[in-house]
Amino acid sequence: MWLTDEQLALQETVAKLLAKGPDDLWPTLCEIGAPGLAIPEEYGGSGATLTELQIVLEQLGRTLAPVPLLGTAIAAEAVLATGNTDACQRLLPDIAAGRVATWCPETKKHVLDGDRAEVLLVGQKGLLYEMRPDQVAITPLTTMDESRSLATVTVDHPENPLGPYDETRVRRFALSALAAEQVGTAARSLEMTVEYARQRRQFGRPIGSFQAVKHRLADMHVLVETARSAAYDREHPTEAKIYCSDALTKVAAEMVQLHGGIAITWEHDAQRYFKRAHGAAFLFGDPAEHLRAYQVRG
Fold it and tell me: Over the stretch 31-86, which tens digit does the pLDDT of each residue have?
């Protein structure tokens, strides 16, 4: 995958920011314009593309940063998918500046950041509605992945319609964005495993020097790099979600096995990445569901 100089600079900026570990990450990401990357300039965004957003999400996936960028970016895309200029002019500048928003698809289960969103874009029967938290019932969910905030949103009477919207467009955007985040998680899982293989000694030598371990690490590397290629192919978001979910699940499982018992202790981060792998696989539809739909279309 080839990135422009500007995209590489963005990647480096976000990586350095995350390395500093700021206490309040979301406002800092807003300062560098992360929420508005995929929002056109006429609506207060930077006028970049989904690729720039994916670059940031990949870096966030590496650290499992508990920030609402993924959900907020998808919500902005939902507004854009209405084609309602007035709604875009009214809602998107605030979202680009950091107002937390989320998209509630038809099922309204497992809504990203549903319990912290200031505006909820509710999809129902082909229409998109703009609603406030006090107009819906929000039930925070207890998730295995504690770095991911999910909620169930119950809507009795949808209000404030923005008009018809292209739900397929929003879902494709969501799948591509999530796939990039999964790549970041897989890449960091590989790095953690390589670091451990260099340090852990068995029979007087690092376990990473054993041929069998080298082969497993090489297989993990191939999975990460092919997943990255799939994620940034915006023409095939369903295939990207299927592949990246499978790749991350396999890489995370290998990470746990090669770390041994320490990987399932609370003291080690490996268990956090393993949980993220399984949680992300089922977000916006599990791989098997997408594969069945893909086979029907084929």
Answer: 999 999 999 999 999 999 999 999 999 999 999 999 999 999 999 999 999 999 99
**Contacts of 289 by beta carbon, 8 Å cutoff, 6+ apart:** none
Burial 15-42 (b: 16+ CB within 10 A, else e): eebbeeeeeebbeebbeebbbbbbbbee
Tell me how crowded residue 279 is: count the other CB atoms within 10 A of its CB. Answer: 17
DSSP string computed for 201-233: EETTEEGGGSHHHHHHHHHHHHHHHHHHHHHT-
Rounded (5°) CA angle 32-34-38: 130
d(CA 274, CA 270): 6
Name, in order, each residue with C-beta under 8 angstroms of 148's C-beta and a sequence gap of 6 or more: 66, 112, 276, 279, 280
Which residues are CB-neighbours of 135 under 8 A, at least 6 positions away? Answer: 155, 159
Q: What is the pTM of this model?
A: 0.94
Instruction: Give residues with Cβ within 8 angstroms of 191, minimum separation 6.
Output: none
Strands (E), the chain: 101-104, 111-112, 119-124, 127-131, 137-140, 150-154, 161-164, 201-202, 205-206
| Angle (nearest 5°) at CA 123 between 122 and 128 | 80
Distance CA 220, CA 196 (A): 14
Nearest Cα residue to 29 out of 96, 75, 92: 96
